Amino acid sequence: MSDNNLRAINTADSPVAGGAHPETTANAGPPLAVRLRQLLELVAAIVLPVAVGAALAPFRSNISPATAALGLAVAVSLIAALSTRLGGVVAAVAAALSFDFFFTKPYGSLSISSAQEIETAVLMLVGGLIVGQLSARNRTNKELVVQTSDDFARIQVIAELMASGAGAFEVVAAVGDELTGLLGLRSCRFERTFPDGPSPTIERNGDVSWGRFWWGFRTLGMPGKEVTLVVEHQRRRLGRYVLTAVPGSPVTREQLVAAVTLADQAGAALGLEAAATVTSGH
To answer: Which pLDDT score is estimated for 274?
Structure first.
């Protein structure tokens, strides 16, 4: 590797991903927007079953309780398909209470005088909870498939860049760009040096360690401190990416494993170029 490339790669002050990355901007969007969307979903989970019950109430003398229960179940299914698991649970409870309020005697109260209507209300609640859980699981599986496909596309981009004969510095910079988009980072830079003390580190299995402790990224998201992603080749540490994430930004194990794979690609590029330089020197 040339001296110019070595100096460029060792420069810790210049971010690998220069300027504003489009995906970073999206992921770094204000958490308030996310919380507002979640709040609106919960409001919809309460309002829609109540609205359906109120709309059907004037016709309760002409329709059976089972038909009303079916209409409310459809509302629960819609909310469960579009909202979170919590939204499905809230919608199921709201539907059961709406059925009780609008379609069981005495009307307009939450008391039930008929054992059969109690059974119908309970079955609606249980059915709504099951539908909500199944919808949430199905949505999670779909999101995982999409995320996995996106992760593979990022790895493929770097593989094609390496196959085209790009230099190590170009590969290191491209991997930094992909890491920024993958994890929604504020900044990402490559350094040859490692911190003296413990720092958050992405392990090869996708866990995040911090000294002797494990960081609960599933619930806490990414740490606010600079995170180390080791770059190595043939078990030899060549440097690290220093990742600065939005504190608490959500991340999955699959994304972290993909980040490790990207770092390995950068390590392979650095290792191969160093080996080529040694060979040419003989």
So the answer is: 77
pTM of the model: 0.55
Fold for domain 3-29+146-281? Beta-Lactamase (3.30.450)
Number of neighbouring beta carbons within 10 Å of residue 180: 26
Q: Where exactly are the structural domains of the chain?
A: 3-29+146-281, 33-141
SS3 of the chain: the string is CCHHHHHHHHCCCCCCCCCCCHHHHHHCCCHHHHHHHHHHHHHHHHHHHHHHHHHHHHHCCCCCHHHHHHHHHHHHHHHHHHCCHHHHHHHHHHHHHHHHHHHCCCCCCCCCCCHHHHHHHHHHHHHHHHHHHHHHHHHHHHHHHHHHHHHHHHHHHHHHHHHCCCCHHHHHHHHHHHHHHHHCEEEEEEECCCCCCCCEEECCCCCEEECCEECCHHHHCCCCCCEEEEEEECCEEEEEEEEEECCCCCCCHHHHHHHHHHHHHHHHHHHHHHHHHHHHHC
Q: Which of 32-36, 200-204, 220-224, 276-280 has the lowest mean pLDDT?
A: 276-280
CA distance 273 to 260: 20
Q: Whole-number mean pLDDT of the chain?
A: 79
Q: What is the dihedral of CA 15, 166, 234, 280, to 10 degrees?
A: -120
* Confidence class for position 146, pLDDT limits 50, 70, 90: low
Q: pLDDT tens digits for 65-85?
A: 778 878 888 888 888 777 777
